Amino acid sequence: MVLQTLVTYGLALAIPALYLAYRHFYNSPPVPAQRREERPVKSIMQAPREDLAPPKDDPYTLEELKEYDGSKPGSKIYVAIKGTIFDVTHKADVYGPGRSYSIFAGKDGSKGLGMSSLKPEHAVADYSDLNESDMKVLNDWHSFFSKRYNIVGKVVDPPATDSSSL
Ligand code: HEM
Ligand SMILES: *[C@@H]1O[C@H](CO)[C@@H](O)[C@H](O)[C@H]1NC(C)=O
Questions:
Q1: Are 57 and 154 in contact (CB under 8 A)?
Q2: Ligand 1 mean position, distance from CA 128 (Å)
Q3: Atom of ligand 1 at shortest distance to CA of 5?
Q4: Cα–Cα distance measured from residue 40 to residue 61, given in angstroms and rounded to the nearest whole number
Q5: What is the tens place of the pLDDT at every residue in 12-38?
Q6: Region annotation Disordered: residue ranges (predicted)?
Q7: Is the pLDDT reported for residue 81 higher than 50?
């Protein structure tokens, strides 16, 4: 498993960001259009779940969300996307301290998810300056998380995503 991830990682380092985003959702090699529906869409990502709890609407500020970055032993780990807060505690191997995607733990890192960026300066809630393609990547992530993680609340101090309010 570890070796497999390392090999995948090494290979993918050379490919551009858009393909990278694509790869996170569809792992099949490119195929001619007329044959596409014959091939099962297989992803490197965990499968969707059937046992999700009803979504909760509990309010959290971004400040309160910081509590849930996994740094306290036994505490929950939350990741917010576009203000929706997901409980990713059972994937501490991915989101826990020092793990691959810990940058997104305890915060709303929507912009970084949209940009396929792990840079700390991109892991912020304000995604208002994303272009259309990065916006699609962000929406794909929201949908990905919605099918895999319980929704425990929403961020109540969302960024200005509506330029008419400026
Ligand atoms: C070097 C390129 C990358 C490779 C090879 C790669 C590979 C992978 C793999 C194999 C998984 C499944 C991991 C698991 O379930 O344990 C994964 C998940 C994920 N990747 Fe990447 N990744 C790369 C870069 C990135 C970047 C730049 C981002 C920034 C947005 C990102 C965001 C994610 C997220 C959010 C997950 C979801 C984990 C989950 O909740 O199941 N990845 N990636
Ligand atoms: C969208 O923005 C990203 C940088 O965040 C850039 O790499 C990409 O080329 C842009 N795409 C389009 C279609 O403008």
A1: yes
A2: 23
A3: 10
A4: 41
A5: 544 566 677 666 876 555 555 565 555
A6: 31-59
A7: yes
Closest CA to 130 of 146, 110, 147: 110
> Which residues are CB-neighbours of 154 under 8 A, at least 6 positions away?
57, 58, 59, 60, 83, 84, 85
How far is residue 106's CA from residue 71's CA, in Å, rounded to a whole number? Answer: 9
Res. 164 pLDDT band, cuts 50 70 90: very low
Average pLDDT, the chain: 85
- Give the closest residue (by CA) to ligand 1 atom 33: 101
CATH 3.20.20.140 is right for the domain spanning 58-158: no
Q: Which atom of ligand 2 is nearest to the CA of 117?
A: 5
Ligand nearest to the CA of 43: 1
